[in-house]
């Protein structure tokens, strides 16, 4: 296998990929559940005195029922005020506090042209709640019918995989996400922990023979057209997702003292040239895109209020590209939480989805110390994304299955 990986090393350098995803027609997330309809009953004919007595009894029963219902409603309202159990549904203009929400039955539009799940920092042999998050993903996906899943990196802990035969590929991926509703393509980028192992092994096509869902590249473009172009019809892309490799851009990894990262397939002898090549490729993709919605996904954040914090190299080099080319949404992992940031000085929405398994349970930052923070969840979970021509809808789902936070991105970028 080492020889095969070596050949892949040569093929992968400088290679980019583009994938066109057909528009699916499957139903969306769990539709609003209608209350059960009352069954018709036939009553015997009664005389007037008996009927009057019956009506009076019914009035008393109705009155008592209303009194009980009122008391219950007040009790629920009081409990909610005390415990803050609500679903944050924000337009993205104001912070939404709290970390609790509803436990299912969420209503989503069935007209969405694209729908997918975003998960990061997950591969721990099912431990640290990875299996629980997977179960909630499967439950949601059974109703949502996502077209694919995107992984924001750190696919296998703690040191990636050694080669294409690694058992972790089965114990952390295939066996954990085995539910029928999750049998869709998984488009993955590399995280810094993946470079502690054999990064090229995750890119190798042999893994796709082990599990056909697996698609991992250093960079690729996913394109979802607005129409069926199977007959040669020219289609405008509804959504284009640009996945790129952030780890080589982060300078701290180049002088890693504790462990040596595997830089095969990269120009590790000339980092300036490597950086320029990666950024040029990303800018070329963005400048050529005519998509209604542009989403960029990498492992490291531009902005984050988690333990790792902002990534200055990406603020300097990537943020200007996002803003210059009209990218509406940037998604990442790295910090083991869920976040939504919308700063006053940038039209881009920044979303962290790194809650696939082990979480640090850090305290949410104070509002005055977190400019632009719309939502912060310091635990495990994932993000469900729905896209149509008019808006993007994001739903943050916790390890217990609650939709804890929702927000909508309009075409104006807000």
Q: Could you characterize the architecture of this molecule?
A:
The protein is α/β, with parallel strands linked by helices. The chain has a single domain, classed as Metallo-dependent phosphatases (Purple Acid Phosphatase, chain A, domain 2, 4-Layer Sandwich). The chain is 27% helix and 20% strand. It has ten helices and 16 strands. The chain has helices spanning 2-12, 48-83, 130-144, 168-174, 192-195, 199-203, 206-210, 271-288, 312-317, 319-324, and strands at 17-20, 88-90, 114-119, 148-151, 186-188, 214-216, 220-225, 237-243, 293-297, 329-332, 338-341, 349-353, 373-377, 381-387, 391-398, 403-410. The strands form two sheets. The chain has an eight-stranded mixed sheet, with helices on one face. Strands 2-16-15-14-3-4-5-6 form an eight-stranded mixed sheet, with helices on one face. Residues 1-14, 23-55 and 72-110 have low confidence and may be disordered.
